Every structure is written in structure tokens, then in C-alpha cells.
User: Fold Voltage-gated potassium channel from Microbacterium halimionae.
Amino acid sequence: MSRNQKAMTRWESVTRWPLTAAALVFLVVYTAQVTLEYTGTARLIASTLIFATWVAFFVDYIVRLSLADPKGEWFRKHLFDLAAVLLPMLRPVRLLSVFVRPQGAKESAGANLRARMLIYGIGAALLLVWIAALSVLEVERYAAGGNIRSFGDAIWWAFCTVTTVGYGDFVPVTLPGRAIAIGLMLGGVVLVGLITATFSSWVIDRVTRGHQEQRAATRADVERLTAELDARLPRPSGNNGLPNVGGQL
Assistant:
């Protein structure tokens, strides 16, 4: 492991919990600011805390990018981290890492992956609905001709939009509100598909469990078993293990 990789590992270990706390602070403060309509000093404090969380995510991204080697490959693999810096509504997704832990050795790698995908899928969907509801309420509450006036209305609209139901009883009328709706619809299609695929994989795994003897052996299975048998069989010594009788003939 190179020096930069070691430094990256140490940095991520040190900042993991502070950044998780920053994501939680952002979620709580932004929720309070929108629903309680802070003014004056309270709004200034809330805005300062939100800005501080942005600085924390920005510094973390810059430090990790500077430690990455090669930087181009790291940049391509961490586009979501950049998006979390640019789009505040993505920062609470960081909270999901707290609930994702490697499972014990009793579970297969596929089961571990499905569990992590399910946690991320459901958690991201709920956070997406919550943040989108707050965002659309903030821009639509006092818009002329708008009808999303309360957080309850915004939550209902967000759930209808993310599931692509679209009753049409609440509709954003501002340009920022419609942009939020587009992002929510796109995110909803992806997340619902992810959850459905993960659940389907889990059902198939449960149905086929206990019927492994009916599964056709692959070429890799045959080669692996052949190698194991070769390793376990005793190796003959000299003329295939037979006494040398050639001189007596």
C-alpha cells in the first residue's frame, strides 16, 4: 500500500463519524428552518450551520482528491461525492453508511450485497422524499398560483411523485419546483427499480435454496473438484508404485 493510500485510509477513518454528524445536523437544521420558518437571528444561526456542513463536505472532497492516485480514476468513481458537495439534498445519504455493516461469515457474499443494497435503496428513497418535500415547500409556499402550502402537502406530493403515481392534486408552479420534481421522478424510477430487483433476487435465492442438487454443474465446478481430487489422492512413487522386476525377465 502506497503512502497516499495509507493517508487516505487514515483520513476516511478519522472523518467518517464527523461527516455523518454533519449530515445529521444538516437534515435537522434544514427541516427546522423550512417547517418553522425561522427569521432574524434564528435563521442566521441555521444558515451558518448549514454552510458549515457544506464546508465540511467540501474540505473532505478536496483532501481525498488530493490524496487519490491516480486522481482521474478516483474522480470518475466518486461522482456522487461531488454531487453531495454541489447539491445539499444529497448530504443526508451519508447517514445510511451508519446502518450498513458487513455481515458475519454465515451469510454469503450475495446476501451481504443484497442487504446493503436494500438498506441503501429504502433509506435513500425515504431521504429523497423528505428532502424533496422540504425543498419544494421552500420555493412553492408563497408562489403565485401554487397550492403546496404546508409540509403535509409537500410530503404527499413527494410520495406521489417518487412512486410515479402523480394524482395531480398538488403541482409545483415555479421553475425551481419543477426542477425538483424532475429530479425526484428520475430518482424514484431508479430507487424503485433497485428495491424491486433486490427483493426479487432475495425471493429467488429463498426459492432455490435447498434445491442445489438440481443445479447443473458448470465447467468451473468440474475443474475445481478435479483439482481437489488430484490434491488428495496419494502420488505413486517410481514405476507407478510397482516393484522393478525388469531385470528378472
